[in-house]
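Re: the request from the purification team.
They wanted to know what the chain is likely to look like in 3D before they choose a buffer screen. I agreed to run a prediction and write the result into the notebook, where they can find it.
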Amino acid sequence: MPEIFVNSLLIVFGICFLIQLVFLLFIYSGFAFRKKRNNVSNIGSPSVSVIICARNEERFIEKNLTQVLEQDYPSYEVIVVNDCSTDGTQQVLDEMQKKYPNLRSLIIQEGYVYKHSKKLPLTIGIKNAQYEYLVFTDADCRPAGKGWLRDIIGAFDADTEIVLGYGAYARTRGFVNSLIRMDTFQIGLQYMSLALAGMPYMGVGRNLAYKKSLFLKQKGFAPYTHVPSGDDDLFVNKAATRFNTRIAACPDCVTISEPKPSFKEWVRQKRRHVSTAKYYKGSTLFTLGIITFSQYFFWLSFVALLFTSWWNIAVALFSIRLLMQMLIYGKAMRKLGESDLLLYSPVIEWLLLFAFYPGVAVSNMLFKEAKWKT
């Protein structure tokens, strides 16, 4: 290789190494080594509205809703918005309402002309909520413990309007499950760490809380009703500030969802999620761009430098970065219940970066965006 090219590679590699180290040591470590907070909130235990959208979720409603309805929390209602279900979802809800007086169900009938996204049932649920504090999860999710609601609300203080939680996926056998969970962990670590650092940019609807007054002040989802997805991350991206956003990270704070059973279904889900990123604030896109491009160029320049006389420097810096990543990821994974992924995380990271994410990006350019539910 020409010397000028090799020197350029070394400079690129060094810059990317420093960027990666800064994020690991000063952003991600803030979450990984964060001390456990006292779960007693200075706002007490206000009444809460839990909102769940369900479309053809009969199986999951039967399986998961009881765990939401039996939380260790003094006063809350659960609103399930039955969004055009054609299965037995409503019958299950009717039966459960006989046992649980704090359960309410609302029904939406599908229109023949207008096909709506998840934002409509969410908006209906929010407007019908009795209480100021709103907590969101999905029908295919279950709380990790009976303290979920208590700990989510415990993260609020007098200035907090948004609380971000972690939405995990259940552990099952197979490599696709490891890919799904590693992708989820990396995204969760990123948005929760950046929120702690004063740069909140997204949350997940599987485990999210905010005030009803904030939703109304932001005019709900009005700025992006044309976007099929984004009911969670786009709202947080617009409404969150360093002063009004907190995270909830503890064993009971997690929700656990059913993972997609096949690679094809997961790709479809990711296409929908990724399609919203272009609507993020410019500052968010800049930060995420730095993270993403530093990862790509770190790996690419590292591999190229292995075939030069600087291979020993490349290996040394790569080893330092890997050691720091494994230490910080290990601590963060223990907080979020994903410790079994640690050993394979570098390999899965490489596969996600160079095989999966490019494939999803190309797919979104070639095919129409997917709806939230069919």
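For the purification team: The first helix runs from residue 3 to 32.
Please add any questions underneath this entry.
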